[in-house]
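3.2 Worked example (two chains)
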Amino acid sequence: MSDQSGEHVHYWDDGRGRRDVFIDGLTETKVIWCDTKAGIAVVADSPLKSSDGETVDFHPAWGEITVVPAEGA
């Protein structure tokens, strides 16, 4: 696994502004965390739900991940 710091790691609240995330060329919404170097993302389930009543359920996604600044951001 790649290191957890650097330009290839993106968090929803890392302070770098809004970005669009593409996994294998398809737009993915609700990305919590992704690593473009390792090709993995953690994505909140859609529709949003919580099995335990406290945290949002999520799942991993693998593929070619591209992150670009969002328009108007």
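3.2.1 Second chain
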Amino acid sequence: MRFDEFNLDAAIIEAISYMNFTEATPVQEQAIPAILSGRDLIACAQTGTGKTAAFVLPVLNSLVQHPNDGVDTVIIVPTRELAIQIDQQIQGFSYFLNIGSQAIYGGGDAVTYAEQERALKEGRDIIVATPGRLISHLAQGYVNFKAVRHLILDEADKMLDMGFLEDIEKIVTYMPTEGRQTLMFSATMPEKIRTLARKILKNPAEIDLGIAKPAAGVNQSVALCYDPQKNPLLIHILKELKPEMKSVIVFTSAKLKVNEIVQTLRRSGVKAAGLSSVLSQEQREEVLMQFKAHRLRVLVATDIMSRGIDIKGIDLVINYDAPHDAEDYVHRIGRTARAGSEGDAITLINPRDMERFANIEKLIEQEVPRMTLPQEMGEQPAWNPAPQRKGGRNNHNRGRNGGRHHGNRPNRSSHTHH
């Protein structure tokens, strides 16, 4: 379905054309008509499927047709990166419109806070905010949300995982219950999300696109390894196996590992930087700018910190450790092979994570090819996705630097990744 078939305002269609948007994605095709009709909506859709346009375009259309003197729309998101990303997209979509937006997030200086305060006092049309910083402004008493007509929760599951449920419920109390359209987007739909939806949504339309499958252009592989083999293997991939890959993201599930991985790569001569919560907002934006400009080859990040990063031309994604679930796996590797291109994704799996990755393979309905480690790194663990017993024999000391190679046989079913 083409965007010009949605009966959107001509100025919005013109802005869309300048951004090279022509065909709607499945979530846009289903969500835009439902939102334009005025219904509340609960949508299950992956990050990277075009969700932002799915809710921003109908909101802009409403503002064009029915201008609002106060804050019209509040979009709540889990991270400052996503707040900035959505605010930038709103500015693009509203290029030919007299509509203003403001990102509200923590981590900035006094000037940033004052700018946010001014936008809230003046009543900017669209506010994109992280829960904690918005609560801080609301507590000061100068925020007026009585004219809000649209409340949007994006990546609701991540916000609840991060402990923002009470903040969200408190923010909602500042808004009118009548005449407000509420939209909830989430990658997964656990019961806690549905409970929240029942509290704040009224007779919502529902969209469930299910778990997305990895794009066909992603060449996936898995490297079975012990923990001491991970750093040598990471360097081997970057310097010997994939030296031509110029733009690489390394994902880790633990924020404490980010700096450790960055230092390992730098010692080996690889230009790398991390994206972590210990950096100021200015530092994080500088890291992203350098990565986008290809002055950095490798960006190391956690799933949470990577939310909102929209960088084209990623050649390779390396999962330093197993994602927690299939949604995170698809989200991570979906950073490459965008828009019909090709890219590589390699996941490092230790014995503890084999069961988790076996479950991911079931959900994405495919077995990811195994790759063989270089002989000098020692044996790699055999594929054994049975639950690991705590306190039993622990294999994590094996492989290169581990000094013991007599426990598990090599994985005969492995094959070299090309």
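3.3 Remarks
The first helix runs from residue 10 to 18.
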